[in-house]
Amino acid sequence: MVAEADPFCYNRFEFRNKAARQAEQEVLMLKHIVLWTFAEFADGHTRAENMERVRAALMALPPLIPEIRRFEVHADLGIDASASTMCLVSEFEDADALQRYAAHPDHRAVSALISGVRTSRAVIDYDV
Question: Are the CB atoms for 118 and 41 separated by under 8 Å?
Fold first, then answer.
């Protein structure tokens, strides 16, 4: 069972619920954020080398997968030792577009690469 998403949107300029945004015909997008922690050494490479391999592989996806609306890959700055190593911040039109992205063969190949070098993964998806 999927938990009901928080129906409210807040930023420093406004606070409105999702129904109000839809009534005003704002385009809603689905934001997909993934956090990874990479192993110190995996797949014959150091953490830094694997981070670069993963970054390059991820950034090759947007031209190949039309469902991607926005795609950012960021490495942690190292301020907090308990932080994840890298994150993906991406946007899709809706849940169906995210599922098509997830099923795409090029995404599956990158996912397999990441699975071989990470020690943890966390994901959150929500409407914006």
Answer: no
Tokens 């599922």 locate to 99
What is the residue type of 31?
Answer: K
- The pTM is what? 0.80
At residue 63, what are phi and psi to the nearest 5 degrees?
Answer: -70, -20
Summarised one tens digit per residue, pLDDT across range 98-109 is 999 999 999 999
Say if residues 113 and 53 touch (Cβ distance below 8 Å): yes
93: in domain = yes
User: Are 88 and 73 within 8 A, CB to CB?
Assistant: yes
What CATH number is attached to the domain comprising 106?
3.30.70.100
User: What six digits make up the tokens of 102?
Assistant: 């997830």
Distant-in-sequence, close-in-space partners of 42: CB < 8 Å, separation ≥ 6: 50, 116, 117, 118
Q: What percent of the chain has pLDDT over 70?
A: 79
